[in-house]
Structures are given as C-alpha cells and as structure tokens.
Write a structure and sequence with these properties.
Shape: globular
Number of helices: 4
Radius of gyration: 16 Å
Number of strands: 9
Distance between the termini: 19 Å
Order of helices and strands: EHEHEEEHEEEEH
Strand order of the largest sheet: 4-3-2-5-6-7
Number of domains: 1
CATH architecture: 3-Layer(aba) Sandwich
Low-confidence stretches: none
Largest sheet: 6 strands, mixed
Mean pLDDT: 92
Strand content: 25-35%
Length: about 180
C-alpha cells in the first residue's frame, strides 16, 4: 500500500519547499555573514530540512544534533519535553540557530531556548520550515519561517506519524482515519 493513499491533500509541493529553503538560506547567510553560527538540528523531523537548508547558505556554518520529544508517538504534544540526545559541542559564547521542521505548541523550543540560555549561548534564533500557530501555548516565535500551515495534521519531508511518512517529498495532510 502506497503512503500517498493516506494523504488527504498536498499542502506544499517539493518546488514550494525548495523555494522556501532557498529564501531562508539567503536570509541566514545575510544575517550571519562572517559569524560561523551553530545550526542545531532537532531530530528526527528536521533532518531533511537541515540538509537542504545548509546547501543554500554560502557562509561557514557548523551543525550539531539534538533528539528531543514532546509527542511520544501521538498526534499532540504532551507538554513534557524529553532530551534523548544532547549536543556534542558547547554552545557557550556561540550564535545558535535551532533548525526545526515545525513549530506547533512551542513547548520544545521554549524548553531548548531556556536550556541554551543557561548554557550561555551568545544568541539563540529559530528557523522553522513550517509554522503552525493554531496550537501555540508558549510565547515562541520563529525568527525565520519558510511556510505557514493551517491547523491540520501534516506529514512528509521529515515530519512523521509513528515514524512513517518522513520520506514523502512533499508536505501533506494525513487522513484522519489513519491516526484516529
């Protein structure tokens, strides 16, 4: 059975995603010219976004990875942010950019922002491919946003439901009967 059969509608095509990556890469390159920021990819969902985004930044950047979860296999955030894998490098004195696939409730990024402030990062910014403000319960705002999303459960281009659909080349709305 094809994963495409579980998709109700395509919200963002591969071409729209590529255009957003190019625009975001140009903005970051301009803002961080000569600064060598640390891009922190929030696993697993943001990995595709990170790999495409950094190829659009013609400036020196470093990358590292964190694996955090607040969904724990469900479709809504539990509010409990759990660090599964921490960074391998120090953020003290560094310009940090969180690379996130989607900002939904804001719980994860609020917790990470507080953590990195306590670790004495020089600055902390957020780049998110998708912004979905309908469920926001934290005062978290991305500094760089690729695409704005309606209040729908989306998958594809790294985003998943129970670790499936990440490899779709587009972002689509998952049919409710799949997850209800």
């Amino acid at each position: 059975m094809s994963m495409n059969q579980d998709i109700q509608e395509v919200l963002f095509t591969p071409e729209e995603i590529a255009a957003a990556n190019q625009r975001l890469g140009q903005q970051i390159a301009h803002d961080y010219q000569g600064k060598n920021p640390l891009l922190v990819c929030v696993l697993k969902g943001a990995i595709l976004f990170l790999t495409d985004l950094i190829r659009q930044i013609p400036e020196s950047v470093e990358i590292d990875f964190m694996d955090v979860s607040s969904y724990h296999g469900g479709t809504t955030s539990s509010g409990d942010v759990k660090i599964i894998k921490d960074l391998d490098v120090s953020v003290a004195g560094r310009d940090v950019i969180f690379v996130e696939d989607i900002i939904d409730t804001g719980n994860t990024l609020k917790a990470l922002g507080d953590l990195f402030a306590s670790r004495k990062a020089k600055s902390v910014k957020i780049v998110s491919l998708v912004d979905k403000p309908a469920h926001r319960n934290q005062s978290v705002k991305a500094d760089y946003v690729g695409l704005s999303c309606p209040d729908k459960f989306i998958v594809g281009y790294g985003m998943d439901y129970q670790d499936r659909y990440r490899n779709l080349p587009y972002i689509g709305v998952l049919k409710p009967e799949v997850y209800l």
